[in-house]
Design a protein that fits this description.
Layout: E1 21-24, E2 29-34, E3 52-55, E4 60-61, E5 64-65, E6 71-73, H1 75-80, E7 91-94, E8 96-97, E9 105-107, E10 115-117, E11 121-126, H2 133-140, H3 143-150, E12 159-160, H4 163-167, E13 170-173, H5 176-215, H6 219-225, H7 235-238, E14 245-248, E15 251-254, E16 258-261, E17 266-270, E18 284-287, E19 304-305, E20 315-316, E21 321-324, E22 326-327, E23 338-340, E24 349-352, E25 356-361, H8 368-375, H9 378-385, E26 388-389, E27 394-396, E28 405-408, H10 411-451, H11 456-463
Parallel strand pairs: 3-10, 18-24
Antiparallel strand pairs: 1-13, 2-11, 3-6, 4-5, 7-9, 7-11, 8-12, 14-15, 16-28, 17-25, 18-19, 20-24, 21-23, 21-25, 22-27, 26-27
Helix pairs in contact: 2-5, 5-10, 5-11
Length: 467
């Protein structure tokens, strides 16, 4: 299994500890191969599962699988792709893509099986007698290894690697027992990150439910009309709601509230166009379409380091609201979706890319939380979609957002909503920052574990601090 070191480069992560080997990936795997697209292409994708899932590169992220946008195929098409089916423990590696999506890797979650992959994703099946899947994942997803993988790039600005490239990857391999111990340590950190993500999803759902109850379904108004105390609300907050409706162009709304258009209340600043040559390491980063979850919300792994020019008004401050203005899929999964930008210590400056707009409030009585949850409502999303155009790429028209009519409550109630959900925002931000810190710890531990600078038992003690 050991490779002749005189014929190859040194280990990508540094000097190997005694007892470790430097091997080529093909020597410790049972299978390496990419997938294919079924006959008919995306026209045969199913939105609901019959049996087989169909994995695309958009589902593969570093160390986790994203089910957003997961599609399915028929048993007939799955039979055609039998050679690219996935088994438990398989690693998925994106072999094409831009600087963000390329080389992302995760272990396939068993709950989405049975599944096949498309031609942009490679299946890597470790030999369990030699290599632990969790260890190999940790190795392939380390930032230094991402740079190493990109050195094999056979494409241009859109990266691409071949099966031969993957087979030749140099992997530092300790004894199997130590591989499993390292995988457990780093996997424990992953579990904490995932727990924070799930907790934030719950917090987000709570805030959305409160907004919908107050400002869409008008539950407190209906309760007062029926002589009931609004549920989960103190008397002072309940007093801010009227106890009757009035007819407007939007139908019945709480008495005293106004029908307004967004264009009268906000300003939209479009982002900066850029060249791929400007996406180089820098203290500045672009917030791009990759920064949006498909259902709305912000994600940190979509930032692109940027070393080009920009206008002062295109700088985004943490806490500001942005909206996606284009979408590369006809599913309209991103276009019109909002996100509140979060701080990121990796960069001094964040700049909006051309694919999104920064929402700046003109009406001082409005605030970002109210607008964010307004933009998440189905009515707003349907309005936005009706103002899109394009075939391969969807574009949101200039008047798509400004023309939207909505029900504007009294400013005192908007302020009360912000205060009411502020603990939710604060807890979400704490979880967010903790996950960033844990990610940094995980990426710091790996090369130290693999260089012998820190032993497994020492690393296990560090886990107690994030338990």
């Amino acid at each position: 299994m050991e490779v002749n070191l005189s014929r190859i480069h040194t280990a990508p992560l540094g000097t190997l500890p005694i007892g470790w080997n430097l091997v080529k990936l093909k020597e410790i795997t049972i299978k390496i191969g990419s997938g294919a697209t079924p006959r008919g292409g995306d026209r045969v994708y199913l939105l609901n599962r019959k049996n087989f899932a169909f994995i695309r590169s958009q589902n593969v992220f570093n160390r986790y699988f994203n089910s957003e946008g997961l599609v399915f195929i028929s048993d007939e098409h799955a039979t055609e792709l039998q050679k690219v089916s996935v088994l438990p423990g398989d690693l998925l590696l994106n072999i094409t893509g831009d600087g963000v999506t390329f080389s992302r890797a995760c272990i396939v979650p068993e709950e989405i099986l049975p599944a096949c992959v498309n031609q942009h994703v490679s299946i890597i099946r470790p030999n369990p007698k030699i290599c632990d899947s969790g260890y190999l994942l940790s190795y392939l997803t380390h930032p230094l290894i991402k740079t190493y993988i990109e050195s094999f790039n056979s494409g241009g600005s859109r990266r691409s690697i071949t099966k031969g490239h993957i087979e030749s990857f140099l992997i530092s391999i300790p004894p199997l027992s130590e591989q499993k111990a390292i995988a457990h340590i780093l996997g424990t950190l992953d579990d904490k990150i995932e727990l924070n993500r799930q907790m934030n999803e719950i917090l987000e759902a709570m805030a959305r439910a409160i907004f919908k109850s107050w400002f869409v379904d008008f539950d407190p108004v209906r309760a007062k009309m029926e002589g009931r105390q609004p549920a989960g609300m103190d008397a002072a907050t309940a007093a801010l709601f009227p106890d009757e409706f009035e007819e407007t162009s939007l139908g019945l709304i709480p008495k005293g509230w106004r029908v307004e258009t967004l264009g009268e209340e906000i300003e939209i600043i479009k982002g900066k166009s850029y060249k791929s040559s400007e996406l180089v390491p820098s203290s500045t980063a672009l917030v791009t379409l990759k920064s949006f979850h498909r259902g709305g919300g912000y994600r940190p792994d979509g930032l692109k380091p940027y070393n080009g020019t920009y206008k002062p008004e295109q700088i985004i401050k943490p806490g500001e609201l942005v909206v996606a203005y284009t979408d590369v899929t006809q599913a309209a999964d991103v276009i019109g979706k909002p996100a509140i930008v979060k701080p990121d210590e990796r960069y001094n400056t964040l700049v909006a890319s051309l694919d999104l707009g920064i929402i700046r409030v003109r009406n001082k009585n409005l605030n970002i939380p109210f607008l964010y949850y307004l933009f998440n409502q189905n009515d707003f999303q349907n309005h936005v979609y009706s103002h899109t155009n394009g075939s391969t790429v969807l574009h949101l028209s200039k008047d798509g957002i400004p023309s939207y009519e909505f029900c504007l409550p009294h400013s005192s109630l908007i302020s009360k909503f912000e205060k009411f959900i502020s603990p939710i925002f604060e807890k979400s931000n704490i979880n967010w920052q903790e996950s960033i810190d844990i990610t940094a710890l995980r990426d710091t531990l790996l090369p130290k574990l693999m260089s012998g600078k820190i032993r497994v038992k020492e690393a296990e003690k560090l886990l107690e601090k994030v338990a």
